[in-house]
Amino acid sequence: MLQGNPFVCEKSNYLFFFSISSVRNLDRSREDERRTKMDGSQHPSFEDYFACQSVYNILGNESDLKLSDFGFEMGDCVVEKTAMLNVGEKIHAYSTPVIFAMGILGNSISLKIFLSKNFRRQAGGVYLASLSCADIFALVFFVMTQWLKRVWPIFTDSRVTPVVDTDGLCQVILYLSYTSRFLSSWLVVTFTVERYIGVCHPFKRLEWCTTKTARRGIVVLTLISLVFNSFKPALSGVYMLDGELTKCTGNPDYHYISFILDSVYAVSITLVPFVVILLLNVMIIRALVKLKRRQKTNQVKAKEAGGRTDFTLLLLMISFCFIALKVPFFVTWCRQFLYSLHLQRDTSGNIDNINRIEIIKGILNITRTVFYMNYATNFFLYSFVGSSFRLELKRLVCCQCRENRSYSWTPQRTCMQSDLSHGETFNRNTAQRNQTVDDV
């Protein structure tokens, strides 16, 4: 424990990348005296602060890049916070439950719609149903559990999170969290590949862009995700820290291996999909521009391609939202990680470095909250862009309204039977987009 400073570091059994003993050997008294003369107050020395920061874990993340697997948690040090850090923590604490509730509701409605008769026959409906399912799992096993880990100690003064810090459930939650996030990212990639084939290689569309191919691809992707992420439960568990505190974290005996594998995982769900999606979308946009030029001289084909273009625009929006919501968090984390490496070699004791760390942490909390929105916004994209999705949503709502108005115990037509009487009208609407069954 560090004495004589307005913060307390409660855990110092080992540090990130360097030992605390080497830090304590620096001449701190001279630096403290200099700071006292400057403003008449006792500031923490930079060496003490950074020692605590190392235990505090510069990222403190139970997020994509799991430096917390080194055994350090966010609540292990209590420090004086900057305004940016306070703002970031409040945004994260109060916005996450709203994102969670909206995401669960929106993805549940989307899943029901994409499993309907009109969508499950189409490759696009199969992909989008799978994405909705993956996002629900990510919201439950990643977003909510991370919120509990970060906010529960603040509300209850307890450093142990129920359920999350229970052996057995700890490994299951981590495994499902990693698997669902991997699937969510790579399902967006498969969307982009499917649209790339449909737009840039239309003659191969009937061969590759089918429901059978989509189901096979999803099964293969799920198996890859289960195998690829099997390292997480194997290297994690509930371990005792400081002789009394038990936390769901990485095995201290394999902290370096865990860090390497978690870094590979983070790159695989952010940077690699980002590059693939960006390159394919550029080629898709180029093909759409060429198609639009040809449509000016062929109005018939323009009508046939209209709905297909709508569906492609929807997938472009999903792809770009993926980039816009995920990349800022990844970039901020990399910025903080690289800055931490700089601080390890900096012995100047500049107090500005301390404030800069806290500012980056505040930004990291904000971008983390934006990152969570990736799992909750697709429903609004579908509703905004997809005409067929809006039509099916309207049918679902009207169907529910008719069922709620039915008070008689006598047998009545079911909602599906009632919809059959309107089938010709619905079919006439969809027939106008016959060439674009995948229009959402």
TrEMBL record:
Question: Which GO terms of the cellular component aspect does the record hold?
Answer: plasma membrane
Q: How does it sit in the membrane?
A: Multi-pass membrane protein
Where is this gene product found?
A: Membrane
Entry superkingdom = Eukaryota
Query: Locate the G-protein coupled receptors family 1 profile domain: which residues?
Result: 106-382
Is Transmembrane helix there in the keyword field? yes
Keywords on record? G-protein coupled receptor, Membrane, Receptor, Transducer, Transmembrane, Transmembrane helix
Which PROSITE patterns does the UniProt record give? G_PROTEIN_RECEP_F1_1 (PS00237), G_PROTEIN_RECEP_F1_2 (PS50262)
Q: Principal place where this protein is found?
A: membrane
What InterPro entries does UniProt report for this protein, alphabetically? GPCR_Rhodpsn, GPCR_Rhodpsn_7TM
SUPFAM superfamilies hit by this protein: Family A G protein-coupled receptor-like
Q: Name one GO molecular function term.
A: G protein-coupled receptor activity
| Membrane-traversing stretches | 91-114, 126-148, 172-193, 214-231, 264-289, 310-333
Family, as annotated = Belongs to the G-protein coupled receptor 1 family.
* Protein name as catalogued: G-protein coupled receptors family 1 profile domain-containing protein
Q: Which organism is it from?
A: Acanthosepion pharaonis
